Amino acid sequence: MATEFVINGLKATIEGKEILKGINLSMKGGEIHAIMGPNGTGKSTLASALMGHPKYEVTDGTVTLDGEDLLEMEVDERARAGLFLAMQYPSEIAGVTNSDFLRSAINARRGEGNEISLIKFIRQMESKMKALDMNEEFAHRYLNEGFSGGEKKRNEILQMMMIDPKIVVLDEIDSGLDIDALKIVANGVNEMRSEDRGFLIITHYQRLLNYVKPDFVHVMMQGRIVKSGGPELAERLEAEGYDWVKEELGITDETVGQE
Amino acid sequence: MSTEIVLPVDREAVAALSNSKNEPAWLAELRLQALETAVQLDNPKPEKTKIDRWNLDAYGTASTNAKVAQFSELPEAVQEVLRSSEDSEVANVLVQVDSNVIYTQLAEELKQQGVIFTDLETAAREHEELVKPHLMQAMKADEHRVAALHAALWNGGVFLYVPRNVEVSIPLQALFYQKDSAARFAPHVLIVADTNSRVHYVDTYISSETTEASVHNGVVEVFVKPGAKVTYASIHHMSKETVDLSYRRAVVEQDGGIEWIVGEMHNGNTISDTTSILKGNGSTSDAKVICVGNGEQKLNLTTRAIHFGKSSDSQMITRAVMREQASSIINGITKIEKGATKANGEQTERVLMLSPKARGDANPILLIDEDDVTAGHAASAGQVNQEQVFYMMSRGISREDAENLIIRGFLAPVVSEIPNEQLQAMLKSYIERKLGQ
Ligand SMILES: Nc1ncnc2c1ncn2[C@@H]1O[C@H](COP(=O)(O)OP(=O)(O)OP(=O)(O)O)[C@@H](O)[C@H]1O
Ligand SMILES: [Mg+2]
C-alpha cells in the first residue's frame, strides 16, 4: 500500500492558548511538501503536535498514517508506525553515546529477539556517517552534547537515514548549516526519496528547496495553512517576502498565540 | 543528648586485642588513647542529616578467620567479585573477611621493586618507620567519636607503599567482606605513595545478606608525596542493616595528584566523606562519586577539597540517583586557605529523583579566604528531563527504555573511569540491582 498521511482539521493548544487552528494537509509517498511562513506562526507546533509532544494538547481533528489513527498513539508508537521528526532544537543527552542511542532506536522497531547484529549496525552507521561527511568520533560522543548547531542537524539526518521512516518531518533542518553541509544534508534527503516515503519540510529559505525540489509549497500564518502552490510559490516568497500574501488575504498580524 | 557515656568496647578488650596481635607498644598506646578520647567526643554532625537514630554502635566482636593459601579456598562471594572472566588467578590482591585479612598475593616483580602490599597489622609490626608517621595523621582520632572509635578498634586493613619513582601499572586490589554481621568490621587503608611514584588501587566492600544490625567503620588515608599520582577507586555494596561510615582522606604534596572514584552502592544508611588536603604547590585532586539510593536509605555524601598549596587544583563531581523513599544530602565543599594563590576549585553535584518520595539535596559550599583564586560550582536536583524522554521516544524508544538510558547515562561519566574492567562490570551490575532491574 502506498504511504498516505492525512492531517484533517488539526487544532492544538499550549497552556490553554490555541496555536493550531485547523490544519488540513494530505501527503502521499513520494511527495515532498514544504511549509514556509514567518516566525511564530505555528510551524514547529505542528511538527511537535504530530509527534505527540506532551506540552501540546490536540483539541480537535485527526491525523492518520496509512489509515491508522496517530493521535491515539504514544510518541514511541508514532515513531514505530513510521513518523520521524528532525527537530529544530534537538535535545542533548549526556552519558548516552550516539551509537547506543541509535542502536536502541533501531532495535525498538525490530522488536525483541530480532535485534540488529552489532557488526551490521556498525557497518551501516559508518557508511551513513561517511555519506554525511561526519567524523567517526561522533558515533562515540554523547548524544548531541556539545555538538555545534550544524553537527546536530547532520545528526538528525543520520538518525533519519538509519531509522528509515515513512513520513519525515524536517523542522528547519537547514538552519545553522554552512553551504557545504546544506548540500550534504540535501543529498541525504534526496537519497532517501522513494515512492513510499513522504517529506514535510519546514523551512524559511529557498536555498534548501533548490536542492530538494518540493512538489507542493504551503504557507502558514495564524496557525493555519493559508496558501498552497507549487515550487514557484517558494521562489516568489524568497523574492518578495510575505507582505503580498498578507495583503491578498487581509492579514495584519500573521503570528499566533500572542496576547 | 544523653549524658551517659557508653562505649561499645572497654579498655581491657582493646588492650587484650593489641596483646593478642603482638602489636608494638606505640600502636597499643594509640588505641587506648583514642578510646579515652572517644569518651569525650560527640558523633559527627553531617550537614542536614540526623544520625542520632542510626545504629552507630553495632560493632560486634573481633573475629579471627583462618588464613588461606589458595585463591580457590576463599569464600565464593569473594571469588565471584575477584575472578576475572578469562583466568581464575587474580594477581595483586588482598582479602579481608570480617575482622582480619586472610589472603594476600603480590606479584614477585612488584616485591622486587620494593612495593609493600600487606595487611596493616603486619605492616605496623614490620614497617614501623613507614606506618607510624602516617597512621591516623590525615584523619585525626579526635575529630569525632567515630574517628576515635576507629583508631581504637580498626582491624585488618591494607598497607600499600610504593617507593620513590616506582610506577605500578596494574591496579592493586583489596576486598573487604563482612561475612558475619556479629563480627567487628573496621578496616583501615593506609597508602603511602613516595616521591614521583604512580599507583592505582581499587577496593570493594561487600557483606553477606543479613537482618542483623552492624557498622562498617572505615578510614582511608592516602599520602601522596611530591610528584606522585594515586588513583583510588572504591565500591561499597553492603547489606541494608549495615551502617556504612566511611572517611577517606588524602594529603597531597607538591605537584602530587589524587584521583578518587567512588561508587556508593551501599544498601543501608551511609556517611561518606572524601577529603583531599592539597598541601603542596601545584597539587591536584579529582573526585568522582556516584550513588544509587533505594528503599529507605539515608545517605550523606561529602566531597571536600582544602587548598593550602599555590596553584592547587580540585575537581569534584557527585551524581546520585534516588528512588523509592531514599534520601540523600550531597555536600561539596571547596575550601581555599589564605595564601593558596592561583588555586582553582570546581565542583558539580547532581541528584536525579525517580519517585515522588525520593529526596535529594545538593549543597555546594565555597569557603574562600584568598582573593587570587578561581572557583566554580553547579548543583541541581530534579527529575528525569521530559524533553529528553520525548526526544528519545520520538525515535521509537519506549518511555521505560528512554528513562533507563538517561539514568545510566547520568551515572556513566563515573562508571567509565573505574580503572579495571572487571570492577566496572561489577559496578554496573550493582547499579542495575539498585535500580531494581
Ligand atoms: N512551549 C511553549 N510555551 C509557550 N508558548 C509556546 C510554546 N511553544 C510555542 N509557543 C508559542 O506558539 C507560537 C507558535 O510557535 P512555533 O514555535 O510553532 O512557531 P514557528 O512557526 O515554528 O516559528 P519559527 O519560524 O520562529 O520557528 C509562538 O507564539 C510561540 O511563542
Ligand atoms: Mg519553528
From TrEMBL, chain A:
CDD domains: ABC_FeS_Assembly (cd03217)
Homology family: Belongs to the ABC transporter superfamily. Ycf16 family.
Provenance organism: Paenibacillus aquistagni
InterPro entries: AAA+_ATPase, ABC_transporter-like_ATP-bd, ABC_transporter-like_CS, FeS-cluster_ATPase_SufC, P-loop_NTPase
Keywords: ATP-binding, Nucleotide-binding
Source superkingdom: Bacteria
Gene Ontology MF terms: ATP binding; ATP hydrolysis activity
PROSITE patterns: ABC_TRANSPORTER_1 (PS00211), ABC_TRANSPORTER_2 (PS50893)
Annotated protein name in UniProt: Fe-S cluster assembly ATP-binding protein
NCBIfam families: sufC
Pfam family, one: ABC_tran
Signal peptide: none
Automatic annotation (TrEMBL), chain B:
Domain SUF system FeS cluster assembly SufBD N-terminal: 92-173
PANTHER family the UniProt entry points to: FES CLUSTER ASSEMBLY PROTEIN SUF, UPF0051 PROTEIN ABCI8, CHLOROPLASTIC-RELATED
Domain of life: Bacteria
Every SUF system FeS cluster assembly SufBD core domain range: 180-410
The name this protein goes by in its record: Fe-S cluster assembly protein SufD
GO BP annotations, alphabetical order: iron-sulfur cluster assembly
Family of this protein: Belongs to the iron-sulfur cluster assembly SufBD family.
